[in-house]
Amino acid sequence: MSIRICSFDIGLPDLPKRLQRDTNHVASLVAKAGRFSAFDATATPDLCKTMDRIERLGWFECDRESSPYPWITAILTEAGRAALRRSE
Fold first, then answer.
1. Within a domain: residue 5?
2. Are 80 and 60 in contact (CB under 8 A)?
């Protein structure tokens, strides 16, 4: 018998609330992971708003087709790279 443990998040819901609202912090974690899950993006109202903001700003190209649900591949755009460089 084998046991398989799966986690469907990259840790965003575990962030303190103030960091869940920090667009640059959340974007840097998504960029580092290269993906996020639907559960990450909707875990709290703060994360939902932050992820919506990141998508509206065009910081990532989100590929919902190449990864199995609930994963979404997140490719950092030039606009996203520039924004994260400014925040360093």
1. no
2. yes
